[in-house]
Amino acid sequence: MQTPWPFQKVMARSAIGSSRPAPRRRRSGSSHVAPVRAQTNTMTIIETFAAYAANPGAGVDAPEVIHHAKRAVVDWYAALIPGAVEAPATLLERALADDLDRGRARLALGRSASARTAALINGTAAHTVEVDDIYKHAIYHPGAPTIAAALAAGQQRQVSGMDFLRAVIVGYEVSTRIGAAMGRTHYRYWHNTGTVGTFGAAAAAAAILKLDASRSAHALATCATCAAGLQQAFRMDSMSKPLHAGRAAEGGLLAALAADAGVTGSLDVIDGDAGLGRAMSDGPDWAAAAATLGREYHITQMTFKNHACCGHTFAAIDGALALQREHRFSVDEIESVRVATYGPALEVAGNRNPRTAAEARFSLPYAMASALIHGSVRLAAFTPQRLADPAIRALMSGIELQVDPRLDAAFPGQRAARVTVRTRDGRELEYLQPNRKGDPEEPLSDAELNDKFLELAAPVLGASAATDLLQRLWQLDSAISLP
């Protein structure tokens, strides 16, 4: 039986301006400054987040925070590289050929591109094979859009590794708070990585561009009105879900570039009477959302995936494998399996008859059966041969799914599942998996994260190049340039 990511052993070692942006003194040298609004409780939530993006304080340089930012970047590249050689990223390269082979930004395998195109394609690629990070309280994958935008802007502006990491932290801290405030109501119909992700991208890009608080506010305001991504888009086989992340990356970067040029947005577009909070949620508590900004760092509380599929399947997978390890039953001994978990897991990943790899990644019965038969749910679980495996299909037919009210009430802060296996000799074996392997409560170690990276990157880059890139990523805080 395969253990999690068990591969090579690698050494790892302000104030806010008026409704129009203030003149950019660094370019014009003008002494004129637009009127400044004092930081009071009359500020919109956009202005609060923008003030942080423009001046995040010394906390972003704390060694622990920087280390977690590097973990996020390592994990992002682990997701990016295999996604870069699959559709839709490969198809986008064809569609956007006029924007490639020029510019300072780069795609995953080194091809040059304009910054916006790099953000779009890399953001899409990083969300394609379903191994990218999660901030569970926001039901959101921040890395795919946020890091794609930060990297594209950083490569274009030729910033240092430390400036890049600071921008990534800013993007995570702003967007995860917006996502958590929007809550479960938002997730009912919207894909948070598309909607919330655009704020992560805009905040990170604004930090790279060194926008002041006024321009950062307009970047966030502009991206807010363009935020999109529907849940229905990934209830069947399509390429829309990863494209949501790519468009969020591109849209956030565009909003920051536009704000830098003087484009303005509506600063109350999030918390206004007809704003994002009311239109797409049930009235978020924005004051609470910003309360810990600059004091608590959400980037230190990320979930890094331990399986190559939808995160809503993970607790059930982990619980089933734990039962199998503890009681040592074979697949042939299983009569039936019952999974009781939280509602959105069944809404998003309840597909009982997946026909394609994309659908199988969102099928809890398929993931469970694959785990019990093969001991893991890696990329190999989604090959045509596995999809047609009669043993997997037979076991799937005996898997029952149900909502557990207590586990449902604990979502999204807790992602738990209760797995019950009935054997042919009459035993009923039960296991409550309280969290997922990879959650902050049971995190992947740096060594496990390295193994994950090498498993996913080496088949594309080669073992030597993958190892070299991994070492560069761990040294980003001392790098004068970006990979």
Automatic annotation (TrEMBL):
Residues 48-287 form the MmgE/PrpD N-terminal domain. Residues 15-37 are annotated as: Disordered. It comes from Cupriavidus taiwanensis. It holds the Pfam family MmgE_PrpD_N. Residues 307-474 form the MmgE/PrpD C-terminal domain. GO terms for molecular function: lyase activity. InterPro entries: MmgE/PrpD_sf, MmgE/PrpD_sf_1, MmgE/PrpD_sf_2, MmgE_PrpD, MmgE_PrpD_C, MmgE_PrpD_N. Belongs to the PrpD family. This is MmgE/PrpD family protein.
